Amino acid sequence: MTWEEQLALDAASFAEQLSYLRARSPFYRDIEPVPLERIAELPLTTKQQLRETVTPENPFGAHFAASREEIVRIYSTSGTTGTPSYIPLTASDLDNWITGSSNSYAASGIEPGQRIVSTYNAGPFAAGAALASFERIGLTHIPVGTGNTDKLLRAIELLKPEAAVLTPSYAAYLAEQHDLRESSVQRILVAGEPGGGEPAFRAQLQAGWGAKVTEAMGIGDIGVSLWGECEHQDGMHLGARGFVHAELIDPATEAPIDMRDGAHGELVLTHLKHRAAPVLRFRTRDHVQVRTTPCPCGRTGPRIRCIGRTDDMLIVRGVNVFPSAVREVVSAFAPDVSGHILVKPAQPGVKQDPPLPIAVELARDARPGVELADAIRDSVRGALVVQTSIELVPWGTLQRSEYKSKLVQR
Ligand SMILES: [Zn+2]
C-alpha cells in the first residue's frame, strides 16, 4: 500500500477514534473534531498530564474510555521516569498490539518455521505483549526471560535458534563475555532502548555475534514494538501502521516538524483504533531522525532512527547533547574502546557548563597511546559541537546491564 493510501485509511480511522473519545473519554471529551491533516491543531498530551488525573477510583487516569468488563489485561510501566502507571487493554487493543509488533519483527527477515530465543519477561511490563508476536509470525518461540545468561547460552547451544531478541546492552554484554560467532544465531533483534541503530555499535554487535542486527521500538502507553527495521538496516518501518499515527515536533517549542527526509525531532504518537485508554498526540520523549527515501524492501512510509531520549538530553552551552550520540562517536574508536561510556554531569539538571566529563572504557587488552583521549575529545567536538573532558577507564570498569544500560550518572 502506498503511504497516501495508508493516510487515507488513517484519516477515516482517526475520525472514528475522535468520535469515540468525545463520547467515552473524560480526558478528551471536549476535543475539537478536526480531520487528520489538521491534527497539529490539537493539544499535545504528556505522561505527566495523564498521571495527574489518576485517582483511587480510576487508577488508569481520565483517558480511560472503556468499561471494567472490557479490559482483558493490565500492564504497568517500569516507572523509570516516575511512579509506575497502569496500561489497560481491551481484547481488540491487545490483538492490534500483537499485529503491529508482528509486522515490526517480521520486517527483520525472520521466517515462519525458524526458532527465536527471547530474553524479555512475560511479566508486568508491556514489553511482554511483544512475545505473542513471535508465535503470530509462525516462529518457534523459546522464552528464557531476563537475567539468566546460563539458560540463554544453553538454549542457543542445544536448540539452535536462528534468531535472538534482546536489549542492545544485553546483546553487547553477551558478545563481550562469550564467543558467539559460531552459534546458530543469524539474526539479532534488539529493542527496549536506543543504540541498535548506531552504526559503530551495531558493527560491533554484528561482529561479536556473527549475525545481522536489526532494531525495533515501541512505547508502553501506545504499543509494543511499533517500529521495526528491515534487512536493509536503514531505519525502522512503522509496523503498527493503521493503528498509530506518527508526527514530529520541536521538543522546545512544540511546533510541528514536517516528516521530510532528514528531519529530526521528538516523536509524537496518536492511537487510531484504540479502546481502553487511547491517547492523542502523546509526547514519547524519543528524539528521532526520519528517512523517506524508498526502501528496497518495498515497505512504504517514513522510517525512523532513535537518536536518544529527550529525558537523557543535556544542554551544554545551548547545544543539545544526547549521550547515545556521544557513544556513537566514541564507538568509532574501536578496537581501542569497548563501546561503554558514562556521561558524568558536574551540575544537577539539564544545563551543563563545558567541558562535559565523560568516562570512556578501553577495550580488553587495549594499550592506547596518550593521544587517544585527545582524539576522542576532538572527534566528539567535531561531530556534536560540544566540549568534553575524556577520562579513559580500564576494561570492565563501567557497569554492564542485562536489561538497559545507564549512559548518564546522576
Ligand atoms: Zn525496508
Shape designation: globular
Number of strands: 20
Strand content: 25-35%
Bound molecules: zinc ion
Distance between the termini: 46 Å
Strand order in the sheet with the most strands? 4-3-5-6-7-8-9
Largest sheet descriptor = 7 strands, mixed
Derived from helix and strand composition plus strand pairing, the structural class reads alpha/beta
Poorly predicted runs are none
- The whole-number mean of residue pLDDT values reads 93
What does this structure look like?
The protein is α/β, with parallel strands linked by helices and 410 residues long. The protein contains nine helices and 20 strands. The protein has a seven-stranded mixed β-sheet with strand order 4-3-5-6-7-8-9, sandwiched between helices. A five-stranded antiparallel β-sheet has the order 11-10-12-13-14. A three-stranded mixed β-sheet has the order 16-15-18. A hairpin with a 2-residue loop joins strand 15 and strand 16. The site of zinc ion has 6 residues, from loops. Zinc ion binds at residues 230, 232, 237, 295, 297, 299.
